[in-house]
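Appendix B. Raw example, untouched.
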Amino acid sequence: MFSISDDQMDALFGYIFTIDPNVDREKLQKKDLTAYKALTDFMQKHCKVSHYVFQVMKCKPEMPCNYCNNHPPRMQNFDQLHWVPDPVCIQGADGERYREFSEVYGNTTTEQDRPSLKSSVTTSPADVVHKDLLVTRKVRSYIQCSDCTKPRCVYSNGCLTPGMTKALEDAETENDYVCGAQLFPGDNPHSNSVVVRESVSCASQIEVSYYSSPRTAFQPCCIHCGKFEDLVASTDDYLNGYKERYKVVRPLCQSCKDIGKEPVCWGVNNVSRKRKH
C-alpha cells in the first residue's frame, strides 16, 4: 500500500480550498464536515460514498457548475464514464453469485447486496475465545459502528480504566470500528481485555445485552437500526398492543415501523391469568 506524500496532500487541499476556503485541515472528522456548507454541497453533487470506495466525478457539461466548468477539462468520452457499481447478487443454477462488473457498470446500484450487510454471520473464533467475557453482566460501554452507526456492546471483566476509556474514545473518534471487526488491533494492550462481539454485521440487530446490562443503563435505541431519535413512544397504542401480549418489548423507531418492521418481543404473557385479576 502506498501512502500519499506531503506534496500530494498539499495539492489535494489546494483543490479543497478552491471549493470551500473555510475548511480547517485539522478539523476534518465526520462531525466537523457539516460546518463546511460549500464542501458538503459539492460532495452531495459530485461524490458517491459507499463501504468499499469513495468516488468523485465531474458533473455533466450542461450543469451550471463553476468548479467543473472552470478547472481541467473533462476527459474524452466523459459521457461514457459512470460510478463504480456496488456488488449485485443474482440467483443462478449453482446458487447465489455476484454479477460481473461488465454486467452492472453504468447501472444504478445500491449496497443491499454488500457482503457485510448479509444477516447470516458465522461464529467468530475470537468470540469463542472470549465467550466468558461476552455476557450481559460484563457490558461496560458501547461503541458505534462508523458505517451503520449501530451501538455495539463493549465487554470487560472489570470497570474500564482511564486508559481503556481513552483507547475506546480514540477508536470511535477516528472511525476505526465497524461491525464484525476487532475492537483493538492485536498489539494493543487492551485487545484481549476490552472486546466486542465479532459475530455481527451491519445487518444484525442490536444485542440483547445493550438493553439488559445490570451495570449500565444506555440510551434507548431502535433494535433494528440503532437510531436513538424518533422512537415510537412507549405509551403508543401500537406498542401497548404488544405489551399486553409480551413481557419484554424492545424499542422501535418510526422509520422502521413505517417500512413494516415489528418490535422484537420476548416472553408471552399469560393472558388468561391477567383477566382473572
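End of appendix B.
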